[in-house]
Amino acid sequence: MDKTLIVITGPTGVGKTAAAIKLAQQLHCDIINADSRQIYRDIPICTAAPTPEELAAARHHFVAFKDLEETYSAAQFEADVLALLPSLWQQGDYAVMCGGSMLYVDAVCRGIDQLPDISHEVRAAVKEKLHNQGLESLVAELELLDPQYAATVDRRNTSRVCHAVEICRQAGVPYSTLRTGTAKQRDFNIIKLALNIEREELFNRINARVDRMIEAGLEQEARSVYHLRHLNSLNTVGMKEMFAVFDGTMDRHTAIERMKKNTRVYAKKQLTWYRRDPDITWCSPQDAVTTAINFLT
């Protein structure tokens, strides 16, 4: 295997995009976006999507390529990346994948279990139940269909609960029985780097970034998609708090502080997830390029 995918991951706000661009420029290669929210159009402020200047600095893939109404999954991401890589390998020996969506990174590096395709009827029925009866009703159904998975899933994660119920309904068997956890073999090398900094510095960066988002027009961006607030693509930190302001259930100051807190909580979850991965090498954002090059030489 003479081709190498270099993964730049880590907690939100740590500086992954800047490090990935520097590395891609040095290796003269493209960047594959592995952020499950940056794939959507129309919400660049909320998702901290790469700026036009950053997109011009290195060629990016899978940034703002889906409409908010479209569904997308880690399994689809795996298939799309594997379909893209052969064309990137024709250009050179390296590609950089950058993002903090844990399932997306794992999908490419380890693979996703083969699951049944969800029919339009099943997806529509689950979506209707969510809309009419709320997430709690789907959690209750999942407890009946697959108590093993229900015991471990994040019950506040709408996407994961809906996906599990869809699989159970479509396959007729518990979702947990279809999850093997066996890593797939890839025909390219994988180097995984996770960036991290001191906790206080990371949290300060997160707080400052939320303030910059507000100054950049996050409230106006959220207002422009408020009519689509039922979509899973908008079930994310930033939008949820702004929607609460528009609904009158939260004041603006509280929403901004809640946004900071929820982002910090998400960062801690990311760190916990990646610390379980023995294949990850940890480094600072400043050392990312040097660390990656050392692996290649």
Q: Which secondary structure elements does this structure contain, and how are they paired or packed?
A:
Elements: E1 4-9, H1 16-27, E2 31-33, H2 52-57, E3 60-61, H3 74-91, E4 94-98, H4 102-109, H5 120-133, H6 135-145, H7 147-150, H8 158-171, E5 189-195, H9 199-216, H10 218-224, H11 239-247, H12 252-275, E6 280-283, H13 288-296
Parallel strand pairs: 1-4, 1-5, 2-3, 2-4, 5-6
Helix pairs in contact: 3-4, 5-6, 5-8, 6-8, 9-12, 10-11, 11-12
Give structural notes.
With 297 residues, the protein is an alpha/beta fold. The protein has helices spanning 16-27, 52-57, 74-91, 102-109, 120-133, 135-145, 147-150, 158-171, 199-216, 218-224, 239-247, 252-275, 288-296, and strands spanning 4-9, 31-33, 60-61, 94-98, 189-195, 280-283. Strands 3-2-4-1-5-6 form a six-stranded parallel beta sheet, sandwiched between helices. Strand 2, helix 2 (52-57) and strand 3 (60-61) form a beta-alpha-beta unit. Helix 5 packs across helix 6, helix 9 (199-216) packs across helix 12 and helix 11 (239-247) packs antiparallel against helix 12. The longest helix is centred in the last third of the chain and has 24 residues, at 252-275. It is globular, with a radius of gyration of 19 Å.
